[in-house]
């Protein structure tokens, strides 16, 4: 008899605990999750992918910029599409964002989705999905993107001035990533996204045209090539950060660092600094890099996510409702 009562009490306690867990999940249930639009707009992800694919077919150089735009969005106010808002004083007008490209890709995907599922899918989610698809269409592995973000209502240009920069030391980069909940390995992995990225010549001109001497970490045999593709008269010209492999998502970016052929100072120091060199060596292998990149992207895409009443679903991505 006592055993039966004990079992009933145990079951009752389990039910109470289960209800408490469910209530907790529901209370936090507006966070991101894979398949958030599976019932409300089941074609959303396929529309984003086909749109990105169409644009990349016309202009393969857009893959890197779309990935970069997502990164710049997440590092300022979280992944809330605040970087997409147009107007005076917005993030789009800040120095680090003046060279961003791919806004038309996101706008195109948004217009197609709105025609099918009005007021359902956020611009923040579209940007996150487009970044994933840009990587996959460039040869990277896919990953499941948690969705359910809301769009932010605030965009302040001055806040974008704290974005990781081309001359940041490893210590500075670690600090900026740590502030966003990302560790040193995430830093090196996400820097690997530069395999499909570009840079303006002015961002590294002081490394190759310095009256006090060129950057000693640069392979001397690489200098003539850099000066050829980046003459001093063309500071805004953009060049590949992964020489010879700009349109392929691979590990040659890391191989270039080992050879002293990193384009940006912030990239090359990942090899010269002992605290990050091990990760560069680790991800010279293609398989581990591609797998880990997706994991780090999921972490990054959940920085400062807005849900519920914290944000909105914009009708058009360049303006708040």
Describe the structure in your own words.
With 321 residues, the protein is mainly alpha-helical. It has two domains: 44-163 and 301-310, Peroxidase, domain 1 (Orthogonal Bundle); 170-300, Peroxidase, domain 2. Helix content is 46%, strand content 2%. The protein has 13 helices and two strands. It has a two-stranded antiparallel sheet with strand order 1-2. The chain is globular, with a radius of gyration of 22 Å. The termini are far apart. Residues 1-30 have low confidence and may be disordered. The active site is at residue 72. Keywords: Calcium, Disulfide bond, Heme, Hydrogen peroxide, Iron, Metal-binding, Oxidoreductase, Peroxidase, Secreted, Signal.
Summarize it.
The protein contains 13 helices and two strands. By secondary structure, the chain is mostly helical.
Tell me the layout of helices and strands.
Layout (H helix, E strand, L loop, with lengths): L1 H26 L16 H15 L4 H12 L28 H14 L6 H14 L33 H9 L5 H8 L6 E3 L4 H4 L14 H7 L8 E3 L11 H7 L6 H8 L1 H9 L3 H16 L20
Subcellular location: Secreted
GO cellular component, one term: extracellular region
GO molecular function: heme binding; lactoperoxidase activity; metal ion binding; peroxidase activity
| Residues in helices, as a percent range | 40-55%
What's the arrangement of strands in the largest beta sheet?
A: 1-2
> What number is the mean pLDDT?
91
Counting DSSP E segments of at least 2 residues, the number of strands comes to 2
- Report the uncertain regions: 1-30
Tally of alpha and pi helices? 13
Q: What is the succession of H and E elements?
A: HHHHHHHEHHEHHHH
Please summarize the sheet with the most strands. 2 strands, antiparallel
Q: CATH-wise, what's the superfamily of the largest domain?
A: Peroxidase, domain 2
CATH class of the largest domain: Mainly Alpha
| CATH third-tier fold name of the largest domain | Peroxidase, domain 2
Chain oligomer state: single chain
Radius of gyration: 22 Å
| Estimated share of beta-strand residues | under 5%
What's the end-to-end separation, in Å? 65 Å
């Amino acid at each position: 008899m006592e055993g039966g009562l004990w079992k009933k009490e145990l079951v009752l306690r389990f039910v109470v605990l289960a209800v408490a867990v469910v209530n907790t999940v529901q209370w936090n249930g507006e966070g991101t999750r894979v398949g958030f639009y599976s019932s409300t707009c089941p074609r959303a992800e396929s529309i984003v992918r086909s749109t990105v694919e169409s644009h990349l077919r016309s202009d393969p150089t857009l893959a890197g910029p779309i990935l970069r735009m997502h990164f710049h969005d997440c590092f300022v106010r979280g992944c809330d599409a605040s970087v997409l808002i147009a107007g005076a004083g917005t993030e789009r007008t800040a120095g680090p964002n003046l060279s961003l490209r791919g806004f038309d890709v996101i706008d195109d995907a948004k217009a197609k989705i709105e025609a099918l599922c009005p007021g359902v899918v956020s611009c923040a989610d579209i940007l996150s999905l487009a970044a994933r698809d840009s990587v996959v269409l460039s040869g990277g592995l896919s990953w499941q993107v948690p969705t359910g973000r809301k769009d932010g209502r605030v965009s302040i240009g001055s806040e974008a001035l704290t974005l990781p920069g081309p001359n940041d030391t490893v210590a500075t980069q670690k600090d900026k990533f740590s502030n966003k909940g990302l560790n040193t390995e995430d830093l090196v992995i996400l820097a690997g996204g530069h395999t499909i990225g570009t840079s303006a010549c002015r961002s590294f001109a002081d490394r190759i045209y310095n009256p006090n001497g060129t950057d000693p970490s640069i392979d001397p045999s690489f200098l003539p090539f850099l000066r050829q593709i980046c003459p001093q008269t063309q500071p805004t010209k953009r060049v590949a950060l992964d020489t010879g492999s700009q349109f392929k998502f691979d590990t040659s970016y890391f191989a270039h660092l080992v050879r002293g052929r990193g384009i940006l100072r912030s990239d090359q120091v990942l090899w010269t600094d002992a605290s990050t060199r091990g990760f560069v060596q680790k991800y010279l292998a293609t398989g581990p890099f591609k797998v880990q990149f997706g994991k780090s992207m999921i972490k990054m895409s959940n920085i400062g996510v807005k849900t519920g009443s914290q944000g909105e679903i914009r009708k058009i991505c360049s303006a708040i409702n």
